[in-house]
Model the fold of this input.
Amino acid sequence: MSLGGSVMPARLRAAELRTDMERATGSAAEIDEYPTHLRVSVPAPVGEEIWQALLGVLASADRWGSSDASGQVRVWASVTSETAPLASAPPSPTTRPRRGAGLPGRGQR
Done:
């Protein structure tokens, strides 16, 4: 997605996803903001035609998936925030290492 050759800001992309997801499913969408991305979600659709329409919309997102953490299955699509740290940036000094990172495995010394 782009406006006049420039990259579309994440908030505009999320708003566009919200509108498109609502049109595809006929359900109200929610937008959640995280430090690295914006996530738009709708209740999981019922019916193949609605799923096909929604899948067409999800293809424009940076990532998509589903969750039932709220007790209701929801399909989400996310766009990366323009203020998100670059994946190649070195970890900050306050970043905690993964559990077990750098530790020998079983049988290793």
